[in-house]
Amino acid sequence: MITRLDHVMIAVRDLDTAIDHYQRLGFRVISGGNHTTLGTQNAFIHFGFTYIELISTFDPARTIQALPHVDVMLNALDQRDGAMIGYALASTDLAKDMEHLSRTGLVVNQPYSVQRMRADGTALNVQVFMPGGQPWRRAWPFLYEWEWSNDEINRAQTHDNGITGIVKVSVGVKDFEQVITIYQQNLGLKLQKQDIVAHLDAKRATFCINDAFIDLLTPRGTGQLKKDLREIGEGVFEIFLTSNNLNHTRIYLEKQGIHFAQDSSDPHALVIEPQEMFETRWIITPETRHI
C-alpha cells in the first residue's frame, strides 16, 4: 500500500558545487558519500519523512556499466547543470503494489535493497522497486519500502531559510489519460480534480497522497513544459515546498542574492528562478496554504 511522498531526486553535474550552493540557500545538507561500485555520489536535504537527494557521477564510465538506463540521466546533464530525474513514493506492502502494477506491464524486475543515511548518521535499509526497470525521467514514481518504523525514519531537520518540507510534485507527461489510469488504478491514488493551468497552458490532474499532492501536467501549447518534454522527456517538472514563514524565506534568499518572483498563479507563493536551482523549478508556499 502506497502511503506517502518519500523523496525527489535531483541530478547535478558537480555534487560539491551543488552542496555549497544549497548550503548558501540556507539548507542543511548531509553528505551520503561515494558509491565506488556505481561511480556515483550523493547528498541529502532532509525534512522529516520527505527529503531531496542530490546525485552526481564521479566516474561516468563505471556508472554506465553499473546502472541500466543511466544514460537518460547523463544525457539530461549534457544539456543542463541539473535535472529532476525522479521521485519516490513510500509503500508498506511492496509485493501488493507490484501485483497491481503487473497489469500494466511495468513489472520487469525485482526489488533490491539499498541503505539510506538518516540525518543523524544512522543507516536505514530500504527495498526499492523501479516500475519499467529504471527510475530516470519517467511519468511515474519508483517505490520505497522502508524496513524501519515511521518514528525511526522521521527525523525533522530545521533549515535556516525556514523551508520545512515537500508538499507537491508536478510531473510532465505525454499520454495524459494513460498515465492518469496508472496512477488511479494501478498505484491506487485518489484523483482529486482535473483542470487547466493557465500560466503553463497545460491540462492538470491532481492526486492526493496523505498530506501531499501529485500533479500530472500535459501541454496544450508551447512553453517550458513542452520544451522539457522534448529535451529531457517525461518526469518531474517542478516541486512545491512549504515555509513556516514565507517573509523570512524571502528575506533570507534576498540576502544571499537569490533571484525569485511571485508565482503568477498564486500571490502567496515564491518561484525561485530555475538558474538559481541548477535549472530546476522550485516553488515555495506557506505551510498554511492549501495547494
TrEMBL record:
Q: Which InterPro entries match?
A: Glyas_Bleomycin-R_OHBP_Dase, Glyoxalase-like_dom
The Glyoxalase-like domain is annotated at 5-185
Question: Which PANTHER family would you find in this protein's record?
Answer: BLL2707 PROTEIN, GLYOXALASE-LIKE DOMAIN-CONTAINING PROTEIN
Q: Report the protein name in the record.
A: Glyoxalase-like domain-containing protein
Q: Write down the species.
A: Dictyobacter arantiisoli
